[in-house]
Structures are given as C-alpha cells and as structure tokens.
C-alpha cells in the first residue's frame, strides 16, 4: 500500500531522489536530507502508514535488523534510534520512519 501524496512513498518509488542505503521487499533506508549528524539515516517500511500503530507486525519486524546493520556500517559506537508519532511528538513526515542518528565524538565535528 502506498500513498500518492506521500514524499516517502515517492522516494521508495524513485520519483524523488534519495541516497539509498538499503532496500528489500518490505524495507527501504536512505540518508536524511537534513542530517543531525554525519550518517543520519531513515529506515522505513514500504507499507504506507502514518503511525507505528498503522503498520503490520510482519513489516515492523524487519525494520530493527536493518537499523542495526546501518548503525554498524556507520562505524558509530554511540547512536540514537528515534521514531516520532504525531505532531505533538515532533512527527513531520506522515510515513512511519525510524531515525538512526550517529552520535560522534565532539572532536569529529557535527554532533
Ligand atoms: P520527523 O520529524 O517526521 O520524525 O522526521 C522527518 C525527517 O525526514 C526529517 O529529519 C527530515 O530531514 C527528513 N526528510 C524530509 N523530507 C525529506 C526528503 O525529501 N528526503 C530525505 N532524504 N529526507 C527527508
Ligand atoms: Zn508513504
């Protein structure tokens, strides 16, 4: 299921360009366009749903292993996995996404 108006569905389809990190039948991952640190990635289900509660378990189950792979590949020893649901919780894009945000040593620059 996808939504014609959704920017992340357009990214999955390739209608909007992205720096792709991973793709499988159910999961897509790409770099965030406004990174909070180098390597800030977004891991999303291909199934379009606004909130975590809208996504089937079978799709959700494949997300964390991908976030783990990307965290390892980033080389970061410290990182945050973050997932916002709803405006009050700071969700801006209404397609479920997990942020993987490396937290580099302050000496390395962006933190
Ligand atoms: P939220 O606040 O909804 O949890 O985070 C949405 C994230 O999506 C933000 O970090 C924002 O930079 C990212 N984002 C929004 N539009 C695009 C886009 O067109 N391409 C990419 N790669 N990231 C986007
Ligand atoms: Zn979508």
UniProtKB/TrEMBL annotation:
For this chain, the family text in UniProt reads:
Belongs to the HINT family.
* A GO MF term: nucleotide binding
- Which UniProt keyword terms apply here? Hydrolase, Magnesium, Nucleotide-binding
Cofactor or coenzyme needed: Mg(2+)
Set out the biological process GO terms recorded for this chain's protein.
Answer: nucleotide metabolic process
The positions flagged as active site in the entry are 97
**Coiled coil where?**
none
Name of the protein described by the UniProt record: Adenosine 5'-monophosphoramidase HNT1
Magnesium among the record's keywords? yes
Instruction: Tell me which species this is from.
Output: Penicillium cosmopolitanum
Locate the motif Histidine triad motif.
Answer: 95-99
Q: Which reaction does it catalyse?
A: adenosine 5'-phosphoramidate + H2O = NH4(+) + AMP
Q: Which residues form the HIT domain?
A: 7-110
């Amino acid at each position: 299921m996808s939504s014609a108006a959704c920017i992340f569905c357009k990214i999955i389809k390739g209608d909007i360009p992205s720096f792709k990190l991973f793709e499988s039948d159910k999961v897509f991952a790409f770099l965030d366009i406004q990174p909070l640190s180098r390597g800030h990635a977004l891991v999303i289900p291909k199934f379009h749903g606004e909130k975590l509660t809208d996504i089937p378990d079978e799709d959700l189950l494949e997300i964390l292993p991908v976030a783990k792979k990307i965290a390892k590949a980033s080389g970061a020893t410290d990182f945050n996995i973050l997932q916002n649901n709803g405006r009050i919780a700071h969700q801006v894009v209404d397609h479920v996404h997990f942020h993987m945000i490396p937290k580099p040593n302050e000496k390395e620059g962006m933190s």
